[in-house]
């Protein structure tokens, strides 16, 4: 080092993994992992309070006028706005519909709020709105109300969308992680990691030899087919931000059980596996937008699996593991070589802005 070289400014260095004691919000707080959970637990939950929020499920189940309703809201900030297999408009519908479906509800109505950046092309907004309407009709829900705001150029990213939804929960349906017990069979509805890799490939201009399309889809019909076999499903979850790993960890923590996953049983498409290998990612942590994971009593597992495979969105459903009494709150994977690894809750996010 020459004598004229200045000493490095260590205070300006940044860490690729945000620290938990960050005094400011970092991207990882929106990733669906440990940082997201801490933000909700330490900031939002104490501020809001209330029993409906305390369950911390994908949607709240509430009693209103003698009916059991599922109520959910979600915001979508994906970039790019259009990607193979979908768009921000499709995500805005399917993401909220799926949150309702994970409570066993039959989705009925959505609200839709658009936040537009000054200067975005009207034709782009039209395409997004048309995609949203198309997805709503396909999901069998109606956009009943909405709102539009415009922010100054440079204070947004083209189009952001918030959707809220309500649906009816049929009598006898009680889906929540606290019902999980050791011996429950864990079923995933199909190949994982597709959506996250599809969005990333377009955003970063990556090519993997074959186009990977998002699995974005509304899962209410699949859930109805499962509930037609038995109402005694214990919990459902759509593994979006944080992927399958985050969903399993959230369920294990809330249930107070352990989860064992057979790594080779987890369906990962070859293009996704190859892309993750190149990029150093674990498919278990990559986002999905058209898959669910179910914890099902063992006596119903075969019949539920058969019903899932008979549905177009569950043709490749697979049993991947079980709930166990050992290591409560922890998820472990049995590897193909006979070893065991801990599948922890991600700290932040591997793939920013995939929904």
Automatic annotation (TrEMBL):
Residues 57-169 form the PurM-like N-terminal domain. GO terms for biological process: protein maturation. Pfam families: AIRS, AIRS_C. Gene3D superfamilies: PurM-like C-terminal domain, PurM-like, N-terminal domain. InterPro entries: HypE, PurM-like_C_dom, PurM-like_C_sf, PurM-like_N, PurM-like_N_sf. Residues 182-327 form the PurM-like C-terminal domain. Belongs to the HypE family. This is Hydrogenase expression/formation protein HypE. It comes from Streptomyces tirandamycinicus. The lineage of its organism: Bacteria, Bacillati, Actinomycetota, Actinomycetes, Kitasatosporales.
């Amino acid at each position: 080092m020459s004598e004229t070289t200045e000493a490095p400014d260590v205070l300006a260095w940044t860490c690729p993994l945000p620290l938990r004691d960050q005094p400011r919000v970092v991207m990882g707080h929106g990733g669906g992992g440990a940082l997201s959970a801490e933000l909700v637990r330490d900031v939002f939950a104490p501020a809001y309070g209330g029993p409906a929020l305390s369950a911390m499920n994908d949607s709240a189940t509430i009693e209103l006028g003698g009916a059991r309703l599922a109520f959910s809201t979600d915001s979508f900030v994906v970039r790019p706005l259009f990607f193979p297999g979908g768009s921000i408009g499709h995500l805005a519908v399917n993401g909220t519909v799926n949150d309702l479906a994970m409570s066993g509800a039959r989705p009925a109505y959505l609200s839709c709020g658009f936040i537009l950046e000054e200067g975005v092309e009207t034709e782009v907004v039209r395409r997004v709105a048309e995609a949203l309407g198309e997805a709503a009709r396909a999901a069998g829900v109606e956009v009943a109300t909405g709102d539009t705001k415009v922010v100054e150029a440079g204070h947004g990213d083209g189009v952001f969308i918030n959707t809220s939804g309500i649906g009816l929960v049929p009598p006898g349906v009680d889906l929540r992680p606290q019902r999980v017990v050791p011996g429950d069979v864990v079923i995933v509805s199909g190949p994982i990691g597709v959506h996250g890799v599809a969005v990333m490939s377009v955003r970063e201009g990556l090519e993997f030899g074959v186009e990977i399309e998002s699995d974005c889809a509304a899962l209410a019909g699949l859930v109805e087919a499962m509930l037609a076999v038995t109402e005694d499903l214990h919990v459902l979850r759509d593994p979006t931000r944080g992927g399958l790993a985050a969903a399993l960890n959230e369920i294990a923590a809330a249930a107070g059980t352990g989860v064992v996953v057979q790594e080779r049983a987890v369906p990962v498409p070859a293009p996704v596996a190859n892309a993750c290998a190149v990029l150093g990612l674990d498919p278990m942590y990559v986002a999905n937008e058209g898959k669910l994971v179910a914890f099902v009593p063992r006596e119903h597992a075969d019949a539920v699996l058969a019903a899932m495979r008979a549905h177009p969105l569950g043709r490749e459903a697979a049993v991947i593991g079980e709930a166990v009494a050992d290591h409560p709150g922890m998820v472990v994977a049995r590897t193909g070589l006979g070893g065991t690894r801990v599948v922890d809750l991600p700290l932040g996010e591997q793939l920013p802005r995939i929904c």
